[in-house]
Amino acid sequence: MLKNIKILLKADCLGWLNSLKHDKQAWRKNVLKGIGYLIFIVALSVLGYSLFMHLRSTDAPPPLLLSVINGFMVFGIIVVAKELMESSLKILYEAPDSALLHAAPIKPVAIFGYKFIHIIATRFLSMLCFLGPPWVAFGIIFELPWYFYIVLFPVSVCLLVLIASYVAISVMVIVRFFSSTGLLATLKVIGTAIGVAVGFLLSFSLFAGADAVPIKRFILDWASTKTGSTAATWYPHEWIGKFLLSWTTEVTLWIKLRWVFGGLGISLVSIGLAVLTAQGIYQHGWEKIRQLKTKRKPARNNNYPTASNLSSTFVTLGRGKVQSLMLKDFLIFIKHTGRVIAIVMLTFFLAIHIGVLFAGGSGADENAAKILTFQVLLYSLLITFGMSCNGLRDEAKTWWMLKSAPVTPNLIFTSKFLTTLLCALIYAEFWSLTAVILLGIPTHNWVPVLLTPIITLPVACALNTMIGTLPWMAELTHQPKPILRVLTFTVTLFIDMICVIAPIIAWWTKNIAVFFVLIILLAGVFAMSYRSGIGNLRKLLVAQV
């Protein structure tokens, strides 16, 4: 069994190295994932440093310090368990190589062992990302010795193995005895909801030092209520929390080793339980999942209620080629779950900002209104990047249909531009109107707040749509160029920020001449973007793929 696991792991490592050498799409995903991890690391580091610095300066008692550590532990464990649940479903049961492995003369427990190690290896970075920053901040604030940071590595491995074992056992039991298509879909939805909630909660780290939103005080009050709890010491967050706390007090080496050996023993026991469970039910669970897939309707149902409802909505805008293409572009945009999650998270951040202004009574401040207007406009452009900058790239597999259809470059560009503009304008005006009503913005600021999106968004949307027609952005007739795409996205975002800031500066100057000059410049940018975009599309339509 161990020989088979070793061979499978070696093949998996070689495949991973090969993808890094030759798969540019894998590079792009890894870069984006790294940026996301970096954001979470910074947010948790800021929050952890602020809390532990306050506890150190106030000489907080050990029970309160332990409660704060346990709070970070619970948060990290929930996030890691969510990712482990998604990985377990995907790797154990939905991976493309599962059918081949189960057909090969390999024991099911060996297949599980290989996939279990693969799950742990792929989620170890998440463990360090969500639990490492608070631990490092804890060590820096309390001036712990250098070998404390070395000990964190095996502690993280033990904790990850422990969580992964019980998550894998739970997933195997659910799949074997309670699995259904609806239940598995519900588990995936729960995982997505937890991910959105994590981004929402971490956004509060931006206000860790603000008085308007007492995030630090709220967390400390919550920790104070937990100081008298009698949770079992063998809970993962409890024994690791006490192990970390032991470094700040004068305790013997035996006490520290007791926590280390206890964690190591529990981890080994959890691995044994996972292996025993897999030996009994993993093969049957995989066969049940395969039967569920075969029971699905093979025939395609052309009656899509969502598309029908959207189509009836678009009928109110009139009938014609433009409306049909706009509906097509919108449906392509919303089919990507990641974009919907991004919209939800940005909306959460915007709601937080409005809530902060509402709680602090800053609605009457003209500067606050300008900052909020900038945020609304920027978010409106960010959420529509998928239609503007990536609109043509999403149609790579069906591009031949547009090339053979009786449509002109002008029609294609107009449909994508109008779809982007309509979504961005509705989003911006809705939140601008909400801010005006909730924050009590003075009447003389209503017109700038509500009029700025109408002036700015058409120009920025036309520019972004034109950027999406560039050959290396559309990726229809050229090899992918991820570095050039990232640079183009960066420059585009910078130009969008200029387009958003310019009307706000004109609003601040309150000079009619500056306003008219700005309108002329924006009109010129709009005309050049529209003309260039149509020209780029004309070249793409006649190019040989």
Number of H- or I-type helical stretches: 21
Mean pLDDT: 76
Strand content: under 5%
Shape: globular
Kindly give the count of domains: 2
Helix percent band: over 70%
Number of strands: 0
| SSE class | mainly alpha
Order of helix and strand elements from N to C terminus: HHHHHHHHHHHHHHHHHHHHH
Radius of gyration computed on alpha carbons: 27 Å
**Largest sheet, if any?**
none
Give start-end ranges of low-pLDDT stretches. Answer: 208-213, 297-307
Terminal-residue CA separation: 48 Å
Folded structure, characterized:
The protein has 2 domains: 27-293, no CATH class; 309-542, no CATH class. The protein has helices at 2-22, 24-57, 62-94, 98-103, 108-141, 147-178, 181-202, 215-225, 236-245, 253-294, 305-315, 321-334, 337-360, 366-383, 385-388, 399-404, 409-439, 446-468, 471-474, 482-509, 512-542. Helices cover 81% and strands 0% of the residues. It has 545 residues and is mainly α. The protein is globular, with a radius of gyration of 27 Å. The chain contains 21 helices and no strands.
Give a concise summary.
The chain contains 21 helices and no strands.
Describe the secondary-structure layout:
Layout lengths: L1 H21 L1 H34 L4 H33 L3 H6 L4 H34 L5 H32 L2 H22 L12 H11 L10 H10 L7 H42 L10 H11 L5 H14 L2 H24 L5 H18 L1 H4 L10 H6 L4 H31 L6 H23 L2 H4 L7 H28 L2 H31 L3
Helix pairs in contact: 1-5, 2-5, 3-5, 3-6, 3-7, 3-8, 3-9, 5-6, 5-10, 6-10, 7-13, 9-10, 11-12, 12-17, 13-14, 14-17, 14-18, 14-20, 17-18, 17-21, 18-20, 18-21, 20-21
